[in-house]
Amino acid sequence: MLNKELVKALTELLGKENVLTEPEDLMNYAFDATAAMPKQTPELLVTPRSTEQVAGVIKLARQYGTPIYPRGSGTNLCGATIPLERGIVLMTLEMNKILEVDPENLTAWVEPGVIIQSLNDAAAEYGLMYPPDPGTVTTATMGGSVSMCSGGLRGLKYGVTKHYIMGMEVVLSNGEVIKWGGKTVKNVTGYDLTALFTGGEGTLGILTKLLVKLNPVPEARKSLLAVFDDLDKAGNTISAVIRGKIIPATMEIMDNTTIRTVKKFTGADLPEDAEAVILIEVDGYRETVEREAAMVEEICSRSGAVSVTAAKTDEERDKLWLARRNALPALAQVKPTTVLEDATVPRSQITSMLRAIRAIAHKYDLPIGTFGHAGDGNLHPTILTDVRNKEEMERVHKAVDEIFEAAVKLGGTLSGEHGVGLGKARYLPLEFGPAGVEVLRWVKEAFDPHYLFNPGKIVLRG
Amino acid sequence: MSIYSDFRLARDEIYKCMKCGNCQEVCPLYLATRKEVTVARGKIGLLEMFVTGEAEMTAGMAERMSYCTTCMACNEKCPCGVRFDQILLAARAEGARRHGLHPIKKTAFTMLRLQRFFNFGMKTGGKLQGAIFRRVEGRDYGARMRVDLGLLGQKKVFPRLAEKPFRENRPTVYVQKPKLRAAFFTGCMINYFYADMGEAVLGVLKHNNVEVLIPEAQGCCGTPAAVNGDVASAIELARRNLRAFEDCGAEAIVVACSSCGSAWKHSFARLLEDDEVYGPLAAKWAARTYDINEFLVRVIDYDRENLGRIERKVTYHDPCHLRRGQNIFQEPRDILRSIPGVELIELKRPDRCCGMAGSFCIVHPDLADKVLAQKMADVAQTPVQTVATGCPACRLQLWSGLINTGLPQDAVHVVQLLNESYEKAAAH
Ligand SMILES: Cc1cc2nc3c(=O)[nH]c(=O)nc-3n(C[C@H](O)[C@H](O)[C@H](O)COP(=O)(O)OP(=O)(O)OC[C@H]3O[C@@H](n4cnc5c(N)ncnc54)[C@H](O)[C@@H]3O)c2cc1C
Ligand code: SF4
Ligand code: SF4
User: Fold this and answer.
1) Distance of residue A182 Cα from the nearest chain B Cα, in angstroms
2) Does chain B have fewer CB atoms within 10 Å around its N or its C terminus?
């Protein structure tokens, strides 16, 4: 049971409106966006409004030995915010100010509760943008997406969150506050803790301010959609585009199951029997875009695409994107439960991975639709099921195991962008071996010896 | 069996939710509070635990279901096609069955059922309102509560109650060789607060050669009861209204309130699903009920020739239950654009909820104010003289917000502008 004195002290520190104690308010935080996870209701939820308050919460939690579960919008896909050992959920949504946009240095300082899209809106006033764009740009927080090192559709050309984090302010498990990194492009002073905390999943410290890099908004963009009746041809096209020295902003692929489902739900103009469609977008200066788009079109046709459509207007672009945008929504409507994975392989192995997933779907008799970021090898095999069906869920778990094994065997990784959290913690030895997992534990215990922050995630107690 | 009588029917809808959180982007209450309990995902999470037996439907859980304006923004956004409005109605009915209604609501809905008593009360109110309300300085038609009844707060501005309800002694509007005979379902807001809107509806229909009947026995549409889980009252009201209109000899029903329209088109049939007599009647009239905007544009192709000029910059606020509830958003804009001199300038987010939501703004006045403040900020950025809308409830909320924010704009129903334009042309 939660200590009454702790509740009192927290209420004094934060004010009554920033401490939730009623079970009906807390049960909402027993889950996040991850399917088929255990639920656990926290004992308390706090919404600090400043770094000092965060530090105060940590000192109290430490004093009473109560774990802290940091949380932004709770949209992660690996159970990273589930308060497994109950304790306190520390929600950052009230720390939501954009502190500065610096157009000279192309940077911005933000608080962790800022929604990614708000940062983009603020940057847009200077003709700038924050490139990482997970599917949740309009809901996820900066603190959450930095902690997950989120990817998105533009990874191929623009990289992922870690390429845009230049510095931060962090509250450590002893309640001390440190600032790391800065506005300089070059900085080799000391270990790169900024990089370590990016993707730290709330297990190492609490991020209270973030310094991000901004890019100029590209002048123009152009989308093309290519349809294939053969997986190999689709795979070859992806390689051919890259070999052709073109780096599109986006190169997305959808498999046959996804195509058929999307067609059924949206009426999108796609052939039922297509084995794959690839959606490519190039961006940059107008002249470059025109030239690259023509080259991409040529490469697609030469590689055996059944058809290639290039969008001429924004409306046509929206039409081409309709299918990709609706991939997950359409798949999600087929069955009540949607298990979304993100096994990732080197770009050159995309077709082998798609084949492996298809074989696994067949073996376990499960509908699996796969779509994803072909340009960076990040696939989203999506298993359609129903948590209420115990027998089927067992097959789902087996299929997930085999998907991970296949990805690692092809030189890839368990997770490209969704993270480890609770969902994948037990698979880590598969990728790192026992010695590698032990190193993770050293790092965790150096920063958080008492397992105060997000216990039960990534690194399990030894 | 309907979702109103059996919560289990909402179970599949609950399991459809994949907890992606996309609804956070659009939920007006979540944007105002940033607490999960206010967004669809949070409430679905609670209900899922109730369904699996992990949690009880406690009084606290039932109370949490009041955190929703039923604006349906989440329905529209949801990638999984979850119809949260259906889940919520089922949950509120279940909550009311287990824990009863809030005593104030119980009295209020009983009043609605006793139409004659309700009518008497509102009429007396019309005469006594000076004692309860304080006039708003500088505006000749608004009033704030003099005393805080512990219900509404003293901030909200109310239009003056009509001294005589709109429907009282209202004869049929006859026209020469009518195009159509329509019956006007006024709803309570028009009847007791906004007689001017009622007059405008009659004006434009008459101008367009439509004969209008106003059945006397009509009452409240029952939406306040239905959305708060008082299913028995809602059913009784639905039946009464169906009886009143079935006998009146009209070919169509016209409404000018988004909630009344949704009630006739959707709720009556759902409430009366198991009723062998009234069920089929509800289905029949659902297909013959039209919002006034829809009726003018799609059914009678209203007169666009004899329109007088109104030099005015106007914006349009989409009532949730017109846009998302009935898919009507093009029609009112068509009408506004057809009036010579009217320039339609869109709000940043015209379909964002205004926070009125019937009794929601009574139960959670602070939250409703926060939602309204966002709308007012949008209006303040839009260079217009008039805010038009398609529902008397939204009109009240907008208008109260405009006065409290000190904004000079007026709030009216679209048909009022159309009627004004017809009158101007006739005067020439
Ligand atoms: C429909 C859908 C589409 C998605 N698409 C993508 C995609 O394309 N690419 C992608 O990479 N991800 C994607 N995601 C996953 C998810 O949106 C991201 O991981 C997101 O960035 C999480 O942000 P959040 O604010 O919801 O964080 P949360 O889920 O609240 O938290 C995530 C982690 O960060 C920690 N944390 C949060 N704030 C702090 C802080 N201030 N300090 C320390 N730790 C903190 C938490 O403890 C947790 O471990 C998708 C998710 C959904 C539901
Ligand atoms: S958008 Fe739909 S599926 Fe996603 S959390 Fe909200 S209700 Fe659930
Ligand atoms: S109906 Fe509106 S207020 Fe209610 S949960 Fe959905 S978006 Fe929020």
Assistant:
1) 30
2) C
For atom 34 of ligand 1, the residue with the nearest CA is A144
| CATH architecture for residues A335-409 | 2-Layer Sandwich (3.30)
**What is the C-alpha to C-alpha distance for residues B375 and B395, in angstroms, rounded to an integer?**
12
Q: Which of B41, B58, B79 sits opposite A24 (nearest CB)?
A: B58
Number of the ligand closest to the Cα of B16: 2
The domain limits of chain A are 4-91, 98-216, 220-328, 335-409
Domain boundary among B299, B333, B353: B299
Q: Please report the pLDDT score of residue B115 as a whole number.
A: 75
The CATH number of A4-91, from 3.40.50.1240, 3.50.30.10, 3.30.43.10, 3.40.30.10, is 3.30.43.10
Closest residue to atom 8 of ligand 3, CA basis: B27
- pTM, two decimal places: 0.94
Which atom of ligand 1 has the smallest separation from the CA of A135?
A: 5
pLDDT mean across residues, chain B: 91
* pLDDT reading at B32 higher than 50: yes
* A338, B18 contact by CB (below 8 A): yes
Q: Are residues B421 and B342 in the same domain?
A: yes
CB contacts, 8 Å: B80 with chain A? 329, 332-333, 338
* ipTM of the complex in this document: 0.95
Ligand 3 site residues (CB inside 6 A) read: B 23, 26-29, 39-40, 68-74, 84
Nearest by CB to A28, which of B18, B37, B63? B37
The structural architecture, per CATH, of the domain A98-216 is 2-Layer Sandwich (3.30)
Q: What is the mean pLDDT of residues A379-389?
A: 95
- 3-state SS record for chain A: CCCHHHHHHHHHHHCHHHEECCHHHHHHHCCCCCCCCCCCCCCEEECCCCHHHHHHHHHHHHHHCCCEEEECCCCCCCCCCCCCCCCEEEECCCCCCEEEEECCCCEEEECCCCEHHHHHHHHHCCCEECCCCCCCCCCCEHHHHHHHCCCCCCHHHHCCHHHHEEEEEEECCCCCEEEEECCCCCCCCCCCHHHHHCCCCCCCCEEEEEEEECEECCCEEEEEEEEECCHHHHHHHHHHHHHCCCCCCEEEEEEHHHHHHHHHHHCCCCCCCCCEEEEEEEEECHHHHHHHHHHHHHHHHHCCCCEEEECCCHHHHHHHHHHHHCHHHHHHHHCCEEEECCCECCHHHHHHHHHHHHHHHHHCCCCEEEEEEHHHCEEEEEEEECCCCHHHHHHHHHHHHHHHHHHHHCCCECCCCCCCCCCCHHHHHHHHHHHHHHHHHHHHHHHCCCCCECCCCCCCCC
Which residues in chain B touch residue A74, judged by CB atoms under 8 angstroms apart? 21, 36
- pLDDT above 50 for B148: no
Residue B211: its H or E element: strand B210-213
Task: Report the gap between the CA of A367 and the closest CA in chain B (Å).
Answer: 17
| B336-388 confidence digits (pLDDT tens) | 999 999 999 999 999 999 999 887 888 899 999 999 999 999 999 999 999 99
Find the mean pLDDT for residues A373-382. Answer: 93
Cα separation, B259 vs B221, whole angstroms: 8
Which residues line the pocket of ligand 1, CB cutoff 6 A? A 32-33, 70-77, 80-81, 92, 112, 134-136, 140-141, 143-145, 147-148, 150-152, 201-202, 206-207, 328, 417-418, 454; B 20-21
**Residue B137 confidence (pLDDT):** 58
Q: Quick one: what percent of chain A has pLDDT higher than 90? A: 90
Same domain, B370 and B335: yes
Of B21, B54, B61, the CB nearest to A74: B21
